[in-house]
Amino acid sequence: MTRLRLLLLLAGAGTLLAGLPAYAVTPVAPARIEAADEPRAVQLLSAASRAARTRTYSGTQYVASWQEHAASSSVAEVRHSPREGSVVTVRPTAGEQPDPSVTPTTDLDPRLLRLLVAHYDLRLAPDTMCTGRLVHVVEALRPSDGTVAGRFWIDRASQLVLRRETFDPAGRLVRSSAFATMSVGATGADVAPASLETLDPIALSRLRGDGWQIPGALGDLELYDARMRTHEGQPVLHLSYSDGLSTLSVFAQHGRLGSAGMAGFRKQVMDRASVWVKASSPERLVWAGAGRVYTVLSDAAPATLRAAVTALPHDRVRHPGLLTRIGRGLARVGSWLNPFA
Q1: Can you tell me the mean pLDDT for 109-116?
Q2: Which of 15, 64, 159, 228 has the smallest count of CB within 10 Å of its CB?
Q3: Domains identified in the chain and CATH numbers
Q4: pTM for the structure as a whole
């Protein structure tokens, strides 16, 4: 599906409001930040993060993501309460199958907010309307040139984020999520999300001592979450990296890859490594190194993806016979990629 067709589809559904097509194709000019803008912008985003943990709400959300050669979209019914978390039902758009890795964003994780403040300059844009509500608009600017990297629409009444967008350095829209409808309920206690799977610094140190490669950063993205999961009886290390806007997930498990082709993937060479690449959104990379198989899913720039391959163990594919369980697992690990959940 072309970018224009998908934009028209979502606009017809009432999700992407007036002005969105212009955002998608027009580079955003550098802008000056007023001295009082950033503290107020941080205050609004912090309030939005708290509201996502304390507010009960429900609605229909559209999520779309674009890469150079691929576009994906999902429509979801979202129900959220502070104590029970979010219940999300994803369905296809316009007859297409939903991509499980393009997941609704129903929260503004405090860890990602800290990274956003550290990596970008924040400013206020004029208030406007979104989903029939008056909203504040916060923009994240690249410090290097002042171009807009992201926008957040924050409901003035409930303080919830109703819409967010991410742009590449050329000003092209690469990810958008927006509520077409939303109903806001009562406010409850601030309940921290469960994090029983998250590995603490001691556990990470132990894993590094056992030979697992766990970089503190990949390109401009910082490690903010690490978990050990079990997939088909095997341990899978899941590392999450972000700068507050772009995200990258690394999945590592014991195994090896052979020379047989992978359906839907093409073989490339990165940093002298044989890497299988799928032009999806987010993009998927698979390679082998030091007795482990690495799967990367990311909406980050190509340079960041290459940095991930460079930083992690990699070797040439030598072994015959691709492990079919790795191929089956790719679709499932895609559903784990939700950096805002």
Answers
A1: 92
A2: 228
A3: 3-187 (2.50.20), 201-334 (3.40.1000)
A4: 0.77
